Amino acid sequence: xxxxxxxxxxxxxxxxxxxxxxxxxxxxxxxxxxxxxxxxxxxxxxxxxxxxxxxxxxxxxxxxxxxxxxxxxxxxxxxxxxxxxxxxxxxxxxxx
Length: 96
Description:
Number of helices: 0
CATH class: Mainly Beta
Low-confidence stretches: none
Structural class: mainly beta
Shape: globular
CATH topology: Jelly Rolls
Distance between the termini: 16 Å
Number of strands: 8
Strand order of the largest sheet: 1-8-3-6
Radius of gyration: 13 Å
Largest sheet: 4 strands, antiparallel
Helix content: under 10%
CATH architecture: Sandwich
């Protein structure tokens, strides 16, 4: 069985709150995201925003660590339901 190992590159720290916060441009489709608070995420282009309405986000995540795929989108936007927290985002690359 072939095992693919991914390594984190280009770490980002994103200050998140109850207003949308966006990542810098993403170069990889595979990302890791960690936040100590519940958060919403939406993928898109350089103008993407995220809201807590049912059509304003792609995924709701409970506090914790997630491996996600951007599906070719170039940016991620985040929003929290309340308070503030830091979103830690790493793009992932395959080890050769």
